[in-house]
Amino acid sequence: MLRLLLVFAGLLFLPQLAMAGEAIANLGLTGTERGIYTVLVFIVAYGFVMAEEFTGLRKSKPVILVAGIIWAHAAVLAAEAGVSTEDLHEAFESNLQEYAALMLFLLVAMTYINAMAERNVFEALRSWMIRKQFNYKQLFWVTGIITFFLSAVADNLTSALLVGAVVMAVGKGNDKFVAIGLVNLVVAANAGGAFSPFGDITTLMVWQAGYAEFFDFFALFIPSVVNYLVPAFFMYLALPDDQPVASDEAAVKLKQGGIQVCVLFLLTIVTAVSFKQFLHLPPFMGMMVGLSVLMIYGYSINRLYHDESFDIFNKVRDAEWDTLFFFFGVVFAVGGLGYIGYLELLSGAMYDGLGETTANIFMGIISAIVDNIPVMFAVLNMNLDMDLYQWLLVTLTAGTGGSMLSVGSAAGVALMGQSDHKYTFFSHIKWTPVIALGYFASILVHYLVNG
Fold it and tell me: Which domain covers residue 132, as residue numbers?
């Protein structure tokens, strides 16, 4: 956090820069008292986000408030600078377009995940793993690998919580295994999401922004594997050789239509990719088509099987609205700071001053402290002229850098809340050196494979 504050403090006194290219011109008023105030309130709001585990205040609440404050001050600054109302609206609506596209995409994905959960898809998987009676070392690899690949389709939060329930159930009575096993899941979930456009919001943002095509991200598969395996190897060596207590849990059966919902989700992904690749339309339109198919299928479940419990609008209601609203706050808060001129200053300080590779690596380190959503949104709005290798690099670093601290990703924060104090900030930080080793090893492998 100290480094981030120093970066912001330095930016306040840099010379004002003009926005280049065809992007919407910023105000260039970073040196004004009102401009500096917006940075300070953003830092305060983000302090509340980072303290969510201790305060219980949902992360969306402070960032939505600060987004409104920043844009109110931006509007005053624009009026004082003689900027027309039309230009102000154009800048504001560009943020609205970006948010709407990503929000609709994520809402459909979350609805499908909730539908699969309601049909017992995830519970059946959890039950199977518990009943297989793996020993601790086998369970370590099985849960890690499943989380790695599951997070490439579902988000890292869902993957970590699902498999984390298995680790805590099987590891009951062995706190050492639970602590190490949950660190393993956080690293696996973040690494697995880095090579798939559907695995993490950062990859989704880069894909929808058009800086990489859908299949380009799979070039990050080997670096992502290395990112996971390096720390996993060292954690594996510290595991106990014991056998968990035998479980007599009965098998969980899928509800009617569970497999069909999974197939529809895969077809929805194909539809979204096809809309982008062949029709040159935003992927969220393909996702919305897939949502309509799920709605119709839900209607058939109700009619054919007399199962009134499958109400698709309940699945929409149960989406992670805190995450969606947090994303709203971040997009508009960072967008407002960019309109005032701070993203251009940050771009000059980091990418022009440090170079693309160093800056992209540093962005991943920042994402261990600050959530990767604002980090990636800031990068995307700097209007950087980077090649595909560099865009994949920042996708890798922003997606996996959060593994270095338990508070660096949604998966880590959620597991801390679910683990009954068996997995904590300090139990995670003991493994930060080897996680950092995996982070830099994956960057090296990316250079060797894709450079």
Answer: 99-450
Number of domains composing the chain: 1
Per-10-residue mean pLDDT for the chain, 451 residues long? 39 37 69 91 87 80 94 93 90 87 85 87 79 85 92 79 81 85 94 86 84 91 97 92 70 87 90 87 91 92 79 85 85 88 81 89 86 79 88 93 83 76 85 96 96 82
Q: Which residues have CB under 8 Å from 395's CB, separation 6+? A: 194, 202, 203, 206, 212, 217, 220, 376
Residue linked to tokens 């099985």: 142
Burial class (CB in 10 A: 0-12, 13-18, 19+), 17: middle
- Residues 6 or more apart whose Cβ sits within 8 Å of residue 46: 62, 63, 370, 374
pLDDT of residue 247: 63
The span from the CA of 389 to the CA of 405, in Å, is 26
Q: How far apart are CA 37 and CA 41, in angstroms?
A: 6
Is 394 part of a structural domain of the chain?
Answer: yes
Alpha-carbon distance 190 to 400, whole Å?
5
DSSP 3-state percent helix, strand, coil across the chain (nearest 5):
75, 0, 25
Q: Looking at the domain assignment, is residue 84 inside a domain? A: no
Alpha-carbon distances of 129 from 29, 163, 167, rounded to whole Å: 57, 9, 10
Q: Give every CB contact of residue 301 below 8 A, 6+ residues apart in sequence.
A: 256, 257, 307, 310
Closest-CA residue to 316 (of 155, 119, 115): 115
Count the Cβ atoms, other than its own, within 10 Å of residue 90. Answer: 12
Q: Tell me which residue of 253, 194, 190, 238 sits closest to 405, measured CA to CA.
A: 190
Does residue 2 lie in a domain region? no
User: Is residue 90 in some structural domain?
Assistant: no
Helices marked H in 216-320? 221-237, 258-277, 283-304, 312-317
Burial class of residue 71 in the structure, from the number of CB atoms within 10 Å of its CB (0-12 exposed, 13-18 middle, 19+ buried): buried
